[in-house]
């Protein structure tokens, strides 16, 4: 399978990038005196990681018939000091909220994503140490 995208410069530091699904994302960076209109490319990489594993986890939990009230992920990437600045360590925190959460099945769903299904996670491991934590919040 091949993915192809087109990214167009929109002036200043703003770029519009399409997606094989037909949707678009705006990207830019911090420039003093300019309004930010998009995500920075490096931050977008962290969002891609969360999106990839999140889609896996939700799909697996649905198959396991596990219900959660809320699910969010927080991703923190630490950059190298020297150029080109790349992520050397990434920490991904999974947060599940609900009543009587099935911790065993949720842990299994997350592990399957981390170890087997999430291609973006596998790509990140090629250049960064990836740490993961699971947090349960009972209501």
Topology at a glance:
Layout lengths: L6 E3 L5 E4 L5 E4 L13 H23 L6 E10 L7 E12 L4 H15 L1 H6 L4 E10 L1
Q: Supply the number of structural domains.
A: 2
Give the SSE string. Answer: EEEHEEHHE
Low-confidence stretches: none
Structural class: alpha+beta
Proportion of helical residues:
25-40%
Q: Give a quick account of the main beta sheet: strands, pairing sense, barrel closure.
A: 3 strands, antiparallel
Number of distinct helices? 3
What's the overall average pLDDT, rounded? 96
Radius of gyration: 17 Å
CATH topology-level fold name of the largest domain: GMP Synthetase, Chain A, domain 3
Please list the strands of the largest sheet in the order they lie side by side.
1-2-3
β content, as a range? 25-35%
For CATH, the homologous superfamily of the largest domain is named as K homology (KH) domain
> What is the 3D shape?
globular
Describe the structure using short key phrases.
KH_dom-like_a/b, alpha+beta, 3-stranded mixed β-sheet, GMP Synthetase, Chain A, domain 3, OsmC/Ohr_fam, 2 domains, 6 strands, 3-stranded antiparallel β-sheet, Putative redox protein
Task: Give an overview of the whole structure.
Helix 1 (41-63) crosses helix 2 (103-117). The longest helix has 23 residues, at 41-63. The protein has a 3-stranded antiparallel sheet, with no helix packed on it. The chain has a 3-stranded mixed sheet with strand order 4-5-6, with helices on one face. It has 2 domains: 1-39; 41-138, 2-Layer Sandwich (GMP Synthetase, Chain A, domain 3), CATH 3.30.300. The chain is 32% helix and 31% strand. It has helices spanning 41-63, 103-117, 119-124; strands spanning 7-9, 15-18, 24-27, 70-79, 87-98, 129-138. It contains 3 helices and 6 strands. The mean pLDDT is 96. With 139 residues, the chain is an alpha+beta fold. Strand 1 and strand 2 (15-18) form a beta hairpin.
């Amino acid at each position: 399978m091949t993915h192809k995208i087109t990214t167009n410069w929109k002036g200043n530091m703003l770029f519009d990038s399409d997606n094989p699904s037909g949707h678009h994302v705006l990207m830019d960076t911090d420039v003093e005196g300019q309004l930010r209109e998009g995500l920075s490319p490096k931050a977008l990489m962290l969002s891609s990681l969360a999106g990839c594993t999140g889609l896996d986890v939700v799909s697996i939990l649905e198959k396991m018939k596990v219900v959660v009230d809320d699910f969010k992920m927080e991703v923190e990437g630490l950059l190298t000091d020297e150029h080109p600045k790349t992520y050397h360590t990434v920490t991904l925190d999974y947060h599940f909220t609900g009543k009587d959460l099935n911790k065993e099945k949720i842990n299994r769903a997350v592990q399957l994503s981390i170890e087997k299904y999430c291609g973006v996670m596998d790509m990140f491991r090629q250049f960064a140490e990836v740490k993961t934590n699971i947090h349960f919040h009972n209501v």
